[in-house]
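Usage

Read records sequentially. Each one opens with the input sequence:
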Amino acid sequence: MASSKGAVIIIMGVSGAGKTTIGRRLEREMKSKYLDADDFHSESNKEKMRMGIPLTDEDRMPWLESLRDAIRESLINKKGVILGCSALKKQYREILRSGDPDYKWGSYASAVNFILLDAPAEVLSLRLNKRAAEGKHYMPASLLQSQLDLLKIDESEGILRVDATLSPQSIVNTIQNMLQ
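and closes with the structure output:
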């Protein structure tokens, strides 16, 4: 599957897990387009996060729907896509899975595949603080706990987990091996 056209791979996890770094590397190696879900947020959502205010489900819904539509377009056009997206709640992942026109809600059988970049809170916090000090992201480390609290994974979803403390190349190799 790793080289198949039309595959949708969502690299998920909280801020600081490495979604963009891994997504961009996979884009090069798998010859699939990388989309960063952060680019789909409204300015008001970004401003809330900058101010340290967690987003509500209501804030996230238009964002999730635009991501779902991008996934659908990719699948209809048989173009592979890699999406870096937090996808913290099962409800959010269901919306993203529904980008597959053939998806049946609750079945988890979809052309949309999720890979969780998993790392301890201490590692994530260090990464976020470093990024903030470099002025590279609007998401403050103060919102990390709210994201960790939201992250819920049901084992029946079949989400692949990768240790996000490994080197980026090791993570990419692991993902490619998992998807074959």
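Summary fields computed downstream for this record:
- DSSP finds seven helices and five strands in the chain.
- The two ends are 5 Å apart (CA to CA).
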